[in-house]
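Human: I would love a firmer grasp of how sequence relates to backbone shape in proteins. Could you go through the record with me and say what the backbone is doing? Here is the record:
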Amino acid sequence: MIQIQDETDGLLRVLRLNRPDKANALTADMLEALALAVEGAGKARALILTGEGRVFSAGADLEAAAAGLATSPLWERLSAAIAAFPGLTVAALNGTLAGGACGMALACDLRLAVPGAKVFYPVMRLGYLPQPSDPARLAALVGPARAKLILMAGARVEAEEALSWGLIDRIVPAESLLDSARSLCADVLAAGPGHAAAIKRMV
């Protein structure tokens, strides 16, 4: 349910959520596989996260959430691994981003989305707290009031509004989503080892 594709002689790793019949809802096994794929990315200098189908991810699988996945440390492990990745990380959102899946996108350096994508994080309605690092990352992108609008008021943010807020960085056509993500990684792939990490530290 997680596809790993290494490109450009292993310098670019593409991770794809591949459970489109379930809106790429995440199970514990999928979170574990994603975390291991990021932690074990080897010589990769850039990382792209995307999904199969018309939804990036609906968040936690409902049955798995009811069994305790909603409060699992696996979510934080994954977002921490992405945030610690020394190269460029790009979330290529092929559709709606919801719930706990927001954490992995918030941890990325850049976020692209297709037209019509939505972002929402309904923890208030579901009675959960967001994952520990998510609110601060969200507030850093959109400000504290808009972070509360999403986390507390349950706002569903359309792609155009998310772009104006800084929650996503570009809206690109679905047919060119991955090519656009790859093009953003080109300079990093061509640079020497450690160059991207040094710039990230400076930023």
About this structure: The beta strands are 2-7, 12-17, 46-51, 55-57, 88-93, 96-98, 110-113, 118-120, 157-158, 170-171.
